[in-house]
Amino acid sequence: MLRSQNSATTGNAPPFKRVKDYLLDELSRGTWLPGQLMPSESQLMQRFSVSRMTVNRALRELQAEGLVDRVQGVGTFAAALHRVASTLSIHDLQEEIEARGHRHSARVHLRRAEPAPAALAEQLGLATGSLLFHTILVHLENGHPLQCEDRYVNPLAAPHYLEQDFERITPTRYLFQHTALRRAQYSLEAARATAEEAQLLGIEPDAPCLIMVRRTMSHQHVITLARLVHPGHRYQLSGDFQP
Asked: Is the pTM higher than 0.70?
């Protein structure tokens, strides 16, 4: 989640921090869409009564954090959503697979609009019985099932979601490109897949799996709720930490 200091602390902050916090706050609100031109250095200098050096430092830090793109002689642009999302540890599985030099493919098993039961409606911020979008996909790495993705999408956040060819673009990538991601919540557990998930993944019913449930939000709406099931013997969760 993009974070800015509250007004009680920014009043005493260094000038560059006040500029940076303002831009962070507006990015989190979705004021500038991915690829959209942001205020110029001159406009920011005038707004905050600061020097060009001060504005430049704020923009350099945002660029280093992957939140803006700067093009010399043109201006500053809001970064692509997949880059912002990477700071939230949300990744597109297709990109992960291709980064390993392997081939990604996907099979679509369900794609439809359906009425929201009470529990789902509450999690997506919808009225019970209102329509939501539902997809079930299996992602494969070199032809081997790697993830079963059971996803619900709020039509208010992505009205054209069901029109997409998800064998060509993953739901994650599409939502990165067409929604203003602001916040994410997730949980991880080691558990068994459901009978349907095990069948789709081609694994034994009692095979251990890594299961992630993830909900993402924009400034205005809950975007999606997804259950991502990975066969334990085919998927490894890893990372790197440097103090």
From this structure: no
